[in-house]
Every structure is written in structure tokens, then in C-alpha cells.
Amino acid sequence: MPRTLDIQTNSFPIDGTFTISRGAKTEAEVITCTLVEEGAHGLGECVPYRRYGETMESVFAQIEAARPLIEAGISRSDLLSAMPPGAARNAVDCALWDLEAKQTGDSVAARLGLSAPQPLTTAYTISLGEPEVMAAQAREHAGRALLKVKVGTGDDESRIRAVRAAAPDAEIILDANEGWPEAVLERHLNIAAQAGVALVEQPLPAGRDGLLAEIRRPLLVCADESVHHTGDLASLADRYDAINIKLDKTGGLTEALTMKAEAERLGFSIMIGCMVGTSLAMAPAVLLAQNADFVDLDGPLLLARDREPGLRYAASLVFPPETTLWG
Q1: Which residues form the Mandelate racemase/muconate lactonizing enzyme C-terminal domain (predicted)?
Q2: Considering the domain boundaries, does residue 137 fall inside one?
């Protein structure tokens, strides 16, 4: 029986509003690929991201254009050259991993050499807002081990200090989403270091981040928008200490595994992150995140409802996926 591909668009409401320096949204729009072959089903989810020129329509069309190759039985290795990095390839690649696991009976975890993948401490995201609002969010979640705090304005000192005061024991990541002007970069980095922040993500715009190579960095600075796939890594070594690997950027787990290995070889600290999606999108990332330095896979926690079955979350932990969900 030939392989068939089904492409679906889905929308999941966010619990409240998710706000970063580039804007706010109230729902997560995702695309789900289902591959069926000889009675086995493989699933993959992606989240198109406008910052990278993607829309639901463009990503759907990209997957549809690749349908002949996908249904003809393309391999994951050949997919790397047949489709560019990005959300579309991610959904197909992850569906192929899941399909292979279902067909062979060997879980993805086992194929990756993870005999017993462990639960991981994941960040929980505090949306950008006025300092007192962010402090209230941080206070509500102060018992979590790791908070990821959205910043990205010309004056974030009050936000940093308010969140730290509200959650004195939590490890904190700041994510500026390219929003810090060069004029405040060193000041904000120093304030973050004074507040005991562990890491700052993408303070300057991608392509305009050369200043990071010229200043003293008092804490880890992590590339997100500046890094997408393995080929980006070597050029970033002088300005970043860590990289954020997201499957929707790399174009799937296959490329992400290669990228992670090369980043470790180059001496980068590793963060495994996500877009705001469901447990289906997080599942392969949880396996990728085993032994990562920072894990930010809280997408389902930000939703008003998740897929069923979903990942198990307990306190600050996210647990490896059951094979009924993925892999």
C-alpha cells in the first residue's frame, strides 16, 4: 500500500495572551502532517512563524508541493535536500520519525540510544508587560525552578528587578527577542548579571549583532533568531555563548541532532526551545533536550487546551513522550 499524506490546520487557544517584544497573540496556529503506510500512522506538528517569513498558507503550500516526493517514500536524509529548513520540513521530518517507529516497533528514544529518557526541568514563560504585571506573574509561578522572562524594550531594568524580587529563588532566563537597542545593551546585560540571571537570549537583531563580539559579556548570551541550522554555527562563535535549537527552525529532528552535536563540539551551551505549540510539537524536542543545558518546552502549558493524549507536566518537570503521543 502506498504512503499517503494528510495535512491539517489546527488552532489552539492560548490561556490569556502571549506577548513578546514583537507583538501579542491569543491562539497557537499549527499544521499537522499525518503519514499513513501499511496501516501505521506517523504524526508531526509545526508552527509557522511570521518572523521568518512563514504563514499558515505558505507552509501548507510548501508541504503540499512536496507531496509527490513524500508519498513516493522519500527518506529523512533525502528530505534534508528536498526541502529547506523551516516549519514545513519539521512537520514532515517528525512524521517520518514517528512512522518509522510505528512500523519497526523501535521507539525513537531507543533509536537515539536513550534507553531511559529522563524528565527535564523546563522553563515557564512570563509574557512581556508592565513591571508590576510581570512581577505578579512571576510571583504566581515563583515555585518553579526556571522562569523565562520576556523583555525587549529600551528600559527593562524595572522589569528585571521586579521579576527577580517576586521570584528570588528561581533560575531566570531573559528573552529580548531582538528588542534591545545597542545603546542599552551593556547596561541591561550588567543589570541582568547583578540580578543573578543565568542567560540572555537574542538581545540584538539577527544580522546586526556584531556588537556582542566587541563587549565584555558578564553572563551567557544565547542566539535564537540568529541561528537556524548547522551552517550558521561557526560564524556565531565570537558573539554568542549558547544557541537555542528549535525544530521549527532547523526543519526537524534529523537536522537538529546534527546541529546539537556540532554546537557541542564548538563549545556552545545548548538550549532546546519551542514555538507555542501542542504536546505533539514538544515530544521530539524532549528527546533532543536530554542532557541540554537549558530546556524551554512549555508550549502546552501556555494553552487553554492541549492535544489528547499530551505530554505529562508536573511542577517544573516535563516527562518523555509516551509512544501513544509520538515516537
Answers
A1: 131-222
A2: yes
- 3-state DSSP call for residue 87? helix
Same domain, 66 and 140: no
pLDDT of residue 199: 98
pTM strictly above 0.90 = yes
Give the pLDDT confidence of 215-257 residue by residue, as tens digits: 999 999 999 999 999 999 999 999 999 999 999 999 999 999 9
* CB environment 13-26: b (16+ within 10 A), e (fewer): ebeeebbbbeeeee
- 96 and 131 assigned to the same domain: no
Tell me which of 88 and 1 has the higher pLDDT. 88
Work out the percent of the chain whose per-residue pLDDT is above 70.
100
**Cα–Cα distance for residue pair 61/156, rounded to 1 Å:** 40
**Domain housing 46:** 4-107
291: left (phi over 0), alpha (psi -120 to 50) or beta: left
**Which of 25, 102, 148, 150 is flagged as catalytic?**
150
150 is a catalytic site residue:
yes
Mean pLDDT of all residues in 108-126: 96
Phi and psi torsions of 252, nearest 5°: 120, 170
Instruction: Indicate the helix (H) or strand (E) that contains 75.
Output: none
Domain harbouring 228, CATH code = 3.20.20.120
153-187 pLDDT tens trace: 999 999 999 999 999 999 999 999 999 999 999 99
d(CA 239, CA 198): 17
CA neighbor of 241 nearest in space, from 262, 211, 207, 271: 271
- 246 is a catalytic site residue: yes
